[in-house]
Each structure stands twice: as structure tokens, then as C-alpha cells.
Amino acid sequence: QSALTQPASVSGSLGQSITVSCTGTSGDVGAYNYVSWYQHHPGKVPKLMIYDVSSRPSGVSNRFSGSKSGNTASLTISGLQAEDEADYYCISYTSSRTSVVFGGGTKVTVL
Amino acid sequence: EVQLVQSGAEVKKPGESLKISCKGAGYSFSNYWIAWVRQMPGKGLEWMGIIYGRDSDTRYSPSFEGHVTISADKSTTSAYLQWSSLKASDTAMYYCALRYGGVYFDYWGQGTLVTVSS
């Protein structure tokens, strides 16, 4: 069982918006603004999409946005496109000695 | 250019030992953390542990502590993931990832596929 809880799957139609949630605790997501999101297409290397809750690396589409409320972080993909179909993972810094906690991943399907 | 280059695919038998590597280039190896991440066939990413290049301070995921050894060598600017006795269930793709720009993993190795089969 992963330390951060994500829905197993989320789907949406082309052009729609979807949101993927990532729920942690007051020791990780709730305590620090160090949540990051990664896109992983099968057979490819994972790609950083959002860091520090809501910042986008250079080159990442502005259709991807992040936010946080309490112990839950969220990734929103607006204007869903076929190439957005992938697995998405959240990662947070944690006060525990492990220093890192992962989410279990969410499969995003574009209908 | 910051890069992580991982060692090549491995095919091993159960009970054998293995050490795979992740070589960092284009940055100061000692000043950053490198993580190891597993992806078993058809499954999601799992965080295994993380190591600091300067002093090899290592933090393990509880799921992996005692089953693998993570190490680093500043002289070769490489991080390593090691098994003393492989099992078929260790068959997976293994990625290393660098925490460079901040508290996130912005650079990833290309992955090392480990296959354990009799």
C-alpha cells in the first residue's frame, strides 16, 4: 500500500478537464509545499510535470496545473488530448526519515 | 548537460547476486540525492530508496529495506543498487532519478531491465 492515495483510474473525453487527487497526511502533503507530479507512458522514462505543488517545468504544457488543499494535492489536465493518456504519480517530501513518499499512480484514459 | 546513464539490461538466475549502476554527469555528484524506483511488469512505480552523494546517507522505503543495498561512489559519480540473492519477483525495470532543481526528481536514467529466471 502506497503512502499517498491516488485513484486507480480517471477518464475524460477529448477536450475535457480532469483532476487527479493525491491524499497524504499532515506529515507530508499537508506539511510541505513539495508535491510533484510525474507522467509515465509505458516504455518511456517518467517525466516531471509539476513541482512544488503548482510550478511547471519549462516545456510542460500550461494545460497541466497543480494545487493543494490541506492534506490533498491535485493535478488538473485541461483540454484533454490523446497524448495525455498515461499513468500519473504524485510524490511528496515527508518529515519521516524516509524523506520521500509516492502515490500508487493513476491511469488517465482519454475517451 | 545533466545526465543519468544506467547500466545495461541483465538476465540472471534466482540466487545470483547483481549490482546495477547509475552514473551521474554534468553536475556536482556530491551535492545531490539520487533515488531508485522499481516498476514490475504491468505495475506502477515504487520508490525503493534514496542516497546522498556526499556522505552516502541512505533512506530506504520500508518495503525494500533489508532486501536491497543502495550505495554511491563519489570517485565514479555513480549510485548503485545491489542484490545478494535475486528472486524471480525482482524481475522489473529499475530507474534512478536525481533530485536536482529542488525537492523533486527532474532527471531520470533510461532504466535498467533486470530479468530473473531459471
What does this entry look like structurally?
The complex is a heterodimer of chains A (111) and B (118). Chain A has 111 residues and is mostly beta strands. In chain A, 0% of the residues lie in helices and 43% in strands. Chain A is built from no helices and 9 strands. Chain A has strands at 9-12, 18-23, 35-40, 47-50, 64-69, 72-77, 86-93, 100-102, 106-110. In chain A, the strands form 2 sheets. In chain A, strands 1, 3, 4, 7, 8 and 9 form a 6-stranded mixed β-sheet that branches. Chain A has a 3-stranded antiparallel β-sheet with strand order 2-6-5, with no helix packed on it. In chain A, strand 3 (35-40) and strand 4 form a beta hairpin. The N and C termini of chain A lie far apart (28 Å). By secondary structure, chain B is mainly β. Helix content of chain B is 0%, strand content 50%. Chain B has strands at 3-6, 10-12, 18-25, 33-39, 45-52, 58-60, 69-73, 78-83, 92-99, 107-108, 112-116. In chain B, strand 4 (33-39) and strand 5 (45-52) form a beta hairpin. The termini of chain B are far apart. Chains A and B meet through strand 3, strand 7 and strand 8 of A and strand 5 of B.
Keywords summarizing the entry:
heterodimer, A: 111 residues, three-stranded antiparallel β-sheet, 9 strands, globular, B: 118 residues, mainly beta, four-stranded antiparallel β-sheet, 0% helix, 50% strand
